[in-house]
User: What shape does this take?
Amino acid sequence: MLKKKYRLKQKNVKRVLQKWEPFFSYNIVLNRQKNKLDYNRFAIIISGKSVYTNVERNFFRRKFYDFIAKNDILKKWFDFVFVVKTKSKFDKKNPESLAIFRKDLNFLINKI
Assistant: This one.
């Protein structure tokens, strides 16, 4: 799990989403904004249309934070907000869904 220090709070997420420097994959949009701290911060937004229950939403959120913690992103210091597109449907019982989720995250991380 990612330490709380590296997670964005709601007011910071809104600020990043207003600035809009986007990167796109098939199912996820990455927005970023430069910060004045000496570390990166992350957040993910998963709507109820993409995932049907809170249990599944929290499952994918935890998978996201585990993925970020394992991948070392040492670029310049940014605030990153990942937004899952509403057209994409994720299900934690479907292994293909988790593989697509990880594939999109890998694509966006490599694109930065």
About this structure: The longest helix spans residues 54-70. The mean pLDDT is 83.
